[in-house]
Each structure stands twice: as C-alpha cells, then as structure tokens.
C-alpha cells in the first residue's frame, strides 16, 4: 500500500563527500568556467551533487525515523493535508507527526508536481513548501522552481530529500493515492494531547470537507445580508493562534449584545452560536460586505 523506505539503489550509498570536491576541482582545471555555457554546466553539476547529498542524508535519517518511532509496527495510518497531521495507530496506541506535502509523482504520466504548484490554499504547510521554491530561485536550481515536469520515481525521492534538508525534516512518508505517490516530509512528533487540540480546531463540512472551525450566530447564512460583526479583523487563510477562533454575529445580535453590555446568558441565547467551517464563514462574510 505504501513505501516509507528510500529505495534509491546502492550507488548513492558509496558517494563520499570527497568526490564532491574532486568533481569541482576537475571542473575548474578543465577550464569549463571560460566556456560559453559554463555557468549552466556548473550549476547543473552543483545541483546534482547537492541533490545526491540530500538523498544520502535522507537514507540515514529514514532508518533512524523508522527505528526511533517504530513506524512499521503500527496497523493503521492516516494523514490529513488540512490538519497537517500523520497518525499511526494500533488500537488505543497512537503516534502523531506533523508533516508537509512536498509533492506528488504520477505513475500514469511519469511526472513530478511540487505541492506549491497545486493543492488548495487550505493545505497545511503552504508557507513551508514555498521556502523550497525560494531556495531554488536563490541557487537558480531549475528543478526547484519548475512546478511540474517529467521525472522518475527515483528523482521524486531525490526532490523529497531536498525538501527534507531545507525544511529540517526527520523523514519521508510516502502513501499512494491511486496513481499518485504522495511524498510527505515529516517535520516532528507532537504529543497526543496537542494532536487532539489541533484536530479539534477542524470540522468536517458537508460543502467543503475538512476545514478550520469557525463560530457564527444562528442568523448568519450564505444567502442574505444580516450584518457581519467580528471578534477580530479576519482574512482568508490567516494564521490563527491556538486559542483564537473565527467568530462573527449579525447586526441584531450586536444590538442585543450592546443592550446587555456583554455576551451573557441572554445575548448568547439570542445568538445561539453555531459551528461552521472556515470557508462557510468567509462565504457569509462575502455576502455581507458585497455592495449590492
Ligand atoms: Zn445573529
Ligand atoms: Zn463549509
């Protein structure tokens, strides 16, 4: 079903660091730097040395990751791109890991797609994954700034290894979804209590699937204008502290709240707060701030 070990063959194993300097040395001596495309050649070589080193490092990390957390011993696994949590469990026993999706490899089209080039804006770790592109721009490494290109499964591991290096990850987990191999960069382990707190911040919406939770008064809806008062200024996909939730209420509720002087039993009863998803919240906001 899935493969969590790096399968990149023996040849990467014996690549010693000294070889890197040898390659660079020979490149300088051969005078390639004066050649017309020297910069391009140099950069390709630089990239390949860097990528190989990352893959080598990942092999070491991966062994450690699987052993330290006894990953292969669990019966079930589950990951959620929205919460950014990867959970392994057997009965009551579970372990939760934070991850970001680096990218996907399609076995149908033999192509790689970086996560920053797709996926909904609601995926966790968008910011982290953009860092890979930034690094690619600084180093002019084409493969890190091209969102989608022809590739191989072996290279997909290499690209994921670069992501692990840049994001300071502890390993890679690679579930399969139909023809897509999903490369998850595992960042760290969170204790079960924190994991539950994170999961509690999300809600399954009938319209939008899994999203962050939000709270609104019973009168707010996605069709009619009733006013939109917020607990704090919000914008789509904003960062929220763990103790903060999106909260909004209508003009009528605001009148009751002002009359009561606070949110008390009476104003709360009038509002009759309901739980909605973040997308529904912003849909309601949109309806209310629209001019007409
Ligand atoms: Zn209301
Ligand atoms: Zn929704």
Automatic annotation (TrEMBL):
<dbReference type="Pfam" id="PF21813">
    <property type="entry name" value="DUF6882"/>
</dbReference>
<dbReference type="InterPro" id="IPR049249">
    <property type="entry name" value="DUF6882"/>
</dbReference>
<protein>
    <submittedName>
        <fullName>Uncharacterized protein</fullName>
    </submittedName>
</protein>
